[in-house]
């Protein structure tokens, strides 16, 4: 158990579980968890999610899970005339497999910490 | 630790908050289904009760009733909660019968087919 960032290893199955922010932690965590924790830092911030069907949604990031499924609240579609059916939707769930990219706020995340965390993962430290 | 407990801890995004609400599900082929979410799993497989498909062609729309639907998760693009206070569609859109919407759909498809074949015929000009 690491008390700095609230992730711990489940004694039953040795799976590392993250509760809080991980980027500030110096302990070892699995590589794919890096992006989950990266995005967890962005919860509550405004992001633009572009989907593979070209639909782009600007909204507050509400939550995400280990697959990077995304939940947004108070959504605004970038091109509302083209997508009239999206007008009455306030909160939505987006499946991970259809996301093309996510545009982040410029002050989104501390690049230095992300950089360090990535190098540490790559070294397998 | 029980499985449910682990889920709670790990999965902060879950469709649980959408259960028993009226939703709009957008599928990968562009179809839009409306219905009440009764069940789901980690793949976003979903059961919609009283499902109907909303067909939109230009300013015309039609809800075609389908019944109980089980949607395979891989086809799901987006699941949206309908805000009952807002209009479902812009006020200028007109509700028409299924027959009319099928006609409009066919007309639209023919128009795009024609556009495609015109382009093909003009290819020899090498416009670039």
From TrEMBL, chain A:
Belongs to the snRNP Sm proteins family. Residues 37-104 form the Sm domain. It comes from the Eukaryota. It comes from Dendrobium chrysotoxum. GO terms for molecular function: RNA binding. CDD domains: LSm2. PROSITE patterns: PROKAR_LIPOPROTEIN (PS51257). One of its GO terms (biological process) is mRNA splicing, via spliceosome. This is Sm domain-containing protein. GO terms for cellular component: catalytic step 2 spliceosome; Lsm1-7-Pat1 complex; P-body; precatalytic spliceosome; U4/U6 x U5 tri-snRNP complex; U6 snRNP. Keywords: mRNA processing, mRNA splicing, Nucleus, Ribonucleoprotein, RNA-binding, Spliceosome. The keyword Nucleus applies. It is found in: Nucleus. Coiled coil: none annotated. Pfam families: LSM (PF01423). InterPro entries: LSM_dom_sf (IPR010920), Sm_dom_euk/arc (IPR001163), U6_snRNA_Lsm2 (IPR016654). Its main location: nucleus.
From TrEMBL, chain B:
SUPFAM superfamilies: Sm-like ribonucleoproteins. GO terms for cellular component: Lsm1-7-Pat1 complex; P-body; ribonucleoprotein complex. InterPro entries: Lsm1, LSM_dom_sf, PTHR15588, Sm, Sm_dom_euk/arc. GO terms for biological process: cold acclimation; deadenylation-dependent decapping of nuclear-transcribed mRNA; hyperosmotic salinity response; mRNA processing. Residues 10-85 form the Sm domain. It is found in: Cytoplasm; Cytoplasm, P-body. Keywords: Cytoplasm, mRNA processing, Ribonucleoprotein, RNA-binding. Pfam families: LSM. Component of the cytoplasmic LSM1-LSM7 complex which is involved in mRNA degradation by promoting decapping and leading to accurate 5'-3' mRNA decay. LSM1A and LSM1B are essential for the formation of the cytoplasmic LSM1-LSM7 complex which regulates developmental gene expression by the decapping of specific development-related transcripts. Required for P-body formation during heat stress. Belongs to the snRNP Sm proteins family. This is U6 snRNA-associated Sm-like protein LSm1. It comes from Dendrobium chrysotoxum (Orchid). The gene is LSM1.
């Amino acid at each position: 158990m690491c008390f700095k960032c609230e992730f711990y290893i489940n004694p039953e199955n040795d799976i590392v579980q993250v509760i809080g922010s991980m980027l500030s932690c110096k302990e070892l965590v699995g590589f794919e968890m890096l992006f989950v924790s990266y995005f967890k830092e962005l919860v509550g911030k405004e992001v633009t999610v572009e989907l593979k069907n070209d639909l782009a949604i600007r909204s507050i990031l509400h939550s995400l899970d280990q697959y990077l499924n995304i939940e947004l609240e108070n959504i605004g579609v970038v091109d509302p005339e083209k997508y009239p059916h999206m007008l009455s939707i306030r909160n939505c769930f987006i499946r991970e497999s259809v996301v093309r990219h996510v545009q982040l706020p410029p002050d989104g995340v501390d690049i230095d910490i992300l950089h360090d965390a990535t190098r540490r993962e790559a070294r397998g430290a | 630790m029980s499985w449910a407990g682990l889920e709670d801890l790990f999965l902060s995004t879950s469709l649980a908050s959408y259960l028993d609400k009226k939703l709009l599900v957008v599928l990968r082929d562009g179809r839009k289904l409306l219905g009440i979410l009764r069940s789901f799993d980690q793949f976003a497989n979903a059961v919609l009760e009283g499902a109907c498909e909303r067909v939109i062609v230009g300013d015309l729309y039609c809800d075609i009733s389908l019944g109980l639907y089980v949607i395979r998760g891989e086809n799901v693009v987006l699941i949206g909660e309908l805000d009952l206070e807002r209009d479902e569609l812009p006020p200028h859109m007109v509700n028409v019968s299924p027959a009319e919407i099928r006609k409009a759909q066919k007309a639209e498809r023919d128009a795009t087919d024609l556009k495609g074949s015109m382009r093909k015929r003009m290819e020899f000009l090498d416009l670039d």
